[in-house]
Design brief:
Shape: elongated
Order of helices and strands: HHHHHHHHHHHH
Helix content: over 70%
Number of strands: 0
Distance between the termini: 34 Å
Length: 292
């Protein structure tokens, strides 16, 4: 546990050393803190005042107001809760289902690998947005339905990465040694191989988080996401486009926050991939040099 924490701290330190990743982490931390302490802030996303509708940004309403006089900044902050909860929930669902499938497929091989991967290929062949819309049509409009839909759409990515990692590691000496000492398939997969395959899975989690936020916003923009009056960035974009001339900041400012959030996650994912690839290259070089 101590070694894992030290590795995480070292990885975080190396991320902060990269300007783009540091900016992305800072912005995400700001959004997450605002979402976490939204109830403490003096903002009410549901308070209406028709007389104060479609006002431009001001000292009282930093992002202006919408067509019902609600504070747009308050709705952006509470909308961050919707997006971040969807992202975290989708990653958890996709990882809990996709990783075991990938581990089993890569470890056992034979017909089980073919069967599991054909099921994954079916999910992969379905367009994410259409699959999510179909599932929401069955489950009904709610944040839980959107979360489940986005999570299921992310299963193939985790499954394929986990399978590739198992196939690369299962013949290595440390896995062979555990098998020789009588380690069960479950122990080998989850206790021996999985801890050594976490790096690409962490990167996939970050990538899926950005996709989940974008997909949730797209569903809300199409009118099948989280139902109103629950604040949602996609819902604000959908409604705000009708008032681009009267109140351009209505749609533009939530759109900027959404874009910066996705861009921050993408930047962090790219930086993390570069760091882990360099670590693997250095480790490969040391191994080859040692053999020589």
């Amino acid at each position: 546990m101590t070694e894992t924490l030290a590795r995480i701290k070292g990885l975080l330190r190396r991320l902060l050393a990269r300007r783009g990743a540091a900016l992305g982490l800072g912005f995400l931390a700001l959004v997450a803190l605002a979402a976490a302490f939204a109830t403490v802030l003096p903002f009410d996303p549901l308070s209406q005042s028709v007389a104060a509708s479609l006002l431009p940004p001001s000292a009282e309403n930093w992002f202006g107001t919408d067509e019902l006089g609600r504070d747009i900044l308050a709705r952006v902050i509470y909308g961050a809760r919707t997006s971040l909860l969807t992202a975290v929930g989708a990653v958890i669902i996709a990882a809990l289902i996709g990783v075991p499938i990938g581990l089993a497929a890569g470890f056992y091989g034979d017909w089980r690998d073919s069967l599991l991967m054909r099921c994954i290929d079916v999910l992969l062949a379905l367009p994410n947005i259409l699959f999510a819309m179909a599932l929401i049509a069955v489950l009904g409009r709610s944040q839980g339905a959107a979360l489940i839909a986005v999570g299921i759409a992310g299963i193939p990515g985790f499954a394929r990465i986990a399978r590739a990692q198992v196939m690369a590691l299962r013949q290595l000496d440390f896995v062979t040694a555990v098998r020789a000492f009588g380690g069960s398939p479950g122990y080998i997969m989850f206790k021996t191989i999985l801890p050594n395959a976490l790096s690409p899975l962490v990167v996939q989690a970050i990538v899926l988080a950005s996709i989940a936020i974008l997909l949730e916003a797209a569903l809300a923009f199409l009118g099948v996401g989280v139902p109103p009056p629950t604040p949602s960035w996609g819902e604000m974009l959908r409604t705000g486009k009708s008032y681009l001339y009267e109140a351009p900041t209505y749609a533009v400012l939530p759109g900027i926050v959404l874009t910066l959030t996705i861009l921050s996650l993408d930047t962090i994912g790219r930086a993390l991939t570069a760091i882990l690839d360099r670590d693997e290259t250095d480790a490969s070089g040391e191994t080859i040099g040692g053999r020589r």
